[in-house]
Amino acid sequence: MPVPFTLIENTWIPMADGRRLAARIWLPEGEGPFPAILEYLPYRKRDGTPPRDETTHTVFAGEGYACIRVDISGSGDSEGLFDDEYSEQELSDGEAVLTWIAAQPWSSGKVGMIGISWGGFNGLQLAYRRPPELQAVVSVASTADRYADDIHYMGGCLLSDNANWGSQMFAYMTRPLDPELRPDWRDAWLERIEKLPFMSADWLRHPSRDDFWKHGSVCEDWSAITAPVLAITGWADAYLNTPAMLAANLTAPTKALMGPWEHRYAHISKLDPADFHGEVLRWFDQWLKGEESGAEALPDYRVYMQEHFGPTKENKPRKGRWVAEQNWPSPNVSERVVYLSTGSLTDTAGSGECRISNPATVGEAGGYFCPGMRFDNELAGDQAGDDVLSTCFDTAPLEDELQILGRPRVRIAFTVDRPVAQIVGRLCDVAPDGSSQRISYRPFNLTHLNGHDAPEPLVPGQRYEVEFPLNECAHALRPGHVLRLALSTSYWPIVWPAPEAAEIMLDLKDCALILPERKVSEEIPPEAPGPAQPYPTLGGRQLRAPSGTSETKALPDGTLVLDTFDDYGEAVNPHNGMQVGSHVSMHYAIHPDDPATATFKSDWRFTFARGDWQVAIDTENRMTCDAQNFYLWRRIHAYEGGASEPVLVKEWSETVPRGCL
Question: What domains appear along the chain, each with residue ranges and CATH number?
Answer without folding.
Answer: 5-156+207-298 (3.40.50.1820), 333-518 (2.60.120.260)
